[in-house]
Amino acid sequence: MLNITTKLLKSILLEKVEQLAVEAGEAIMQVYCREFAVELKADHSPLTEADKAAHVIIVRGLQALTPDVPVLSEEDTQRFEGANADGFYWLVDPLDGTKEFIKRNDEFTVNIALIERGQPVLGVVVAPALSLTYVAASGLGAFKIAVDGKYVAIHTDPAPLEGQPWRVLGSRSHPDPRMADWLAALGKHSVQPMGSSLKSCLIAEGRADVYPRFGPTSLWDTAAAQAIVEQAGGRIVTCEGKPLDYSTPAQLLNPDFVVWGGSVLPSPAY
């Protein structure tokens, strides 16, 4: 259990990181509201000036806030040399869902996570176009920040009762042919496509039950949302049932995984 002093410090840190994510989101929206150019990175993923602007804001802010904690950002992987001596590092996706940003469908986020010895212990996800903010920290719980600025505790829903359909979220821009077989094993369901880490956040607040992801994702795509899902009572696990792990950041890609809201994981889905 965290002592009161540690809880207070973590709460202050969470608030400051949330402010950084909001500031990055505001910079993203300044680009979103006008014409912008799109580049292609070496892996052929898109890059915009919004990604770059958010990266600068977040990295500078985190370095000022915690100068002894290294930062691994999607937009700067080369200078990251690993976690500090205590096993901490920041994991950042300045603009998750760049394809959704380019399509202008509003389903993109800012993701910031604090990793401690391979596990996300603090996470902030901001969806600036939708005015949504989710935050969580171990020992504090998971929260959605309301329009009036109040923190509202969020929790996952139990698994559907027998005979009731599973509310499934799917990737909007990254379809995979294995999805059909997985859904057939799951049973009765409805599927809603969505972009970015919003899928995991909707599960964390009980608005969906499960999100299977087949195909490549990177560590920064999942860490912040994983902190939120876990503190809300859910799980993000590999197809072997193990939590996603961030202890080897040199390995940037995640395995296939499933985000579960309910506490009961149906074995046929694996």
> What is the 3D shape?
globular
Distance between the termini: 33 Å
Number of strands: 14
Total domain count: 2
CATH topology of the largest domain: Fructose-1,6-Bisphosphatase, Chain A, domain 1
Report the total helices: 6
Largest sheet: 7 strands, mixed
Q: Tell me which CATH architecture of the largest domain applies here.
A: 2-Layer Sandwich
CATH 4th-level superfamily of the largest domain: Fructose-1,6-Bisphosphatase, subunit A, domain 1
Mean of pLDDT: 92
Beta strand %: 25-35%
Low-pLDDT sequence parts: none
Label the structural class: alpha+beta
Topology as a string of helices (H) and strands (E): HEEHEEHEEEEEEHEHEHEE
Helix content: 25-40%
Rg from alpha-carbon coordinates: 18 Å
CATH top level of the largest domain is Alpha Beta
If strands are numbered along the chain, what order do they take across the biggest sheet?
3-4-5-6-7-8-9
What does this structure look like?
- It is a single chain.
- The chain has 270 residues and is of the alpha+beta class.
- The chain folds into two domains: 4-153, Fructose-1,6-Bisphosphatase, subunit A, domain 1 (Fructose-1,6-Bisphosphatase, Chain A, domain 1), CATH 3.30.540.10; 166-269, D-Maltodextrin-Binding Protein, domain 2 (3-Layer(aba) Sandwich).
- It has six helices and 14 strands.
- The protein has helices at residues 4-32, 49-65, 98-103, 178-186, 198-204, 219-231, and strands at 38-40, 46-48, 71-73, 88-96, 109-116, 119-127, 132-137, 141-145, 151-153, 166-171, 189-194, 210-213, 235-238, 257-260.
- The relative contact order is 0.14.
